[in-house]
Amino acid sequence: MQYWDGDDMATTDDGSNGMTEPCEVCGVETLHEVSVQIVTEGGTGENARYSREPYRVRECQRCGNRESQRMNNA
Predict the structure, then answer these.
(1) Where is this region: Disordered (predicted)?
(2) Strand 52-60 to strand 66-70: parallel, antiparallel, or no bridges (unpaired)?
(3) 36 contacts: CB under 8 Å, gap ≥ 6
(4) pTM to 2 decimals?
(5) Cβ neighbours around 57 below 10 Å, total
């Protein structure tokens, strides 16, 4: 997979860079950095440019656990 790092799209009320979300590893709500990345799923070749999909990526700022979820599930 190839990743393209998009702009940080997360905001919080306390002005920090991230948002609180539940962390499966920590077991509590923690600060997460959230971004959108474009992933090329089709490998290489001429048609690879048509297989790009957006993914929501979040990383726990406490333990470093990183998760991604495909945003287009058509």
Answers:
(1) 1-21
(2) antiparallel
(3) 6, 7, 9, 54, 55, 56, 57, 71
(4) 0.64
(5) 19
- The sign of the dihedral angle between the CA atoms of 35, 41, 2, 29 is positive
Six-digit token string for 68: 């991604």
- Give per-residue pLDDT as tens, 6-64: 444 443 444 455 679 999 999 999 999 999 999 887 767 777 777 888 999 999 999 99
Q: Amino acid identity, residue 67? A: E
Q: How far is CA 45 from CA 2, 48, 49, 71, in A?
A: 13, 6, 8, 24
Tokens of 63: 């333990």
Q: How many CB atoms lie within 10 A of CB 72?
A: 8
For tokens 């499966």, name the residue.
24
